[in-house]
From TrEMBL:
Domain CBS: 98-146
Domain of life of the organism encoding this protein: Bacteria
Upper taxonomic lineage: Bacteria, Bacillati, Actinomycetota, Actinomycetes, Streptosporangiales
Organism: Nonomuraea mesophila
Protein name: CBS domain-containing protein
InterPro entries xrefs: CBS_dom, CBS_dom_sf
Length: 154
C-alpha cells in the first residue's frame, strides 16, 4: 500500500485563527494534531495534541509534577483561557513542528519511519509539481497496519 492510497483531506487552521476555535476543530474531528496553513492555503506546520496540552501549562511546571499539583482548577481555567485567546501563529512559533512530507509512492513502512523520526502524528503527501495530495494521520497508519496484520493471520 502506498501513501497516495491512504491520504485524507483534513481541515486546517489558519495562522490568524484563534486558538480556541482551532482546538475545538481538532476535538470535533478527533484529530491527533492540527495542520496549519498560511494565508495562501499552503501548509506551514502542525501542532500535535500533546503540543497543545503542553502550551496550556506554565513552562515552569513542565517536568515538575509536584509543582503542577499545587495548581487548583480555577487556576487551570485561567491558564487555559490565556491559551485560548492566542492566535494559532503564536502557538506554532512556541511549539509547532514542520510537518514531514512524503512522496505519493512511499510505503507504509517508510511512512511509519518518517512519522516516528519526526515525532509528528501527521504527514503531508505531496506530488512534486502539483502540490499537496492530502495528509496521513497516525490513526490512519495504525488502522492500515492492523488491517494488514489481520489479513496476514490465518
Amino acid at each position: 500500500m502506498r501513501a497516495a492510497e491512504i491520504v485524507e483531506t483534513l481541515p486546517t487552521a489558519r495562522l490568524d485563527d484563534e486558538a480556541l476555535a482551532a482546538v475545538r476543530m481538532l476535538c470535533e474531528q478527533r484529530l491527533p494534531g492540527l495542520i496549519v496553513a498560511d494565508e495562501q492555503g499552503r501548509v506551514v506546520g502542525c501542532l500535535s495534541s500533546v503540543d497543545l496540552l503542553k502550551l496550556a501549562l506554565p513552562r515552569y511546571t513542565l517536568g515538575e509534577p509536584l509543582l503542577a499539583r499545587v495548581f487548583d482548577e480555577a487556576h487551570a481555567d485561567r491558564i487555559a483561557e490565556l491559551l485560548a485567546r492566542k492566535p494559532v501563529r503564536v502557538l506554532l512559533e512556541e511549539a509547532g513542528h514542520r510537518i514531514p512530507v512524503a512522496r505519493p509512492e512511499a510505503t507504509l513502512v517508510e511512512l511509519v519511519e518518517l512519522m516516528t523520526r519526526h515525532g509528528c502524528p501527521l504527514i503531508l503527501v505531496e506530488q512534486v509539481d502539483e502540490g499537496g495530495l492530502g495528509v496521513i494521520t497516525a490513526n490512519r497508519l495504525l488502522e492500515k497496519l492492523a488491517a494488514a496484520i489481520s489479513e496476514a493471520s490465518p
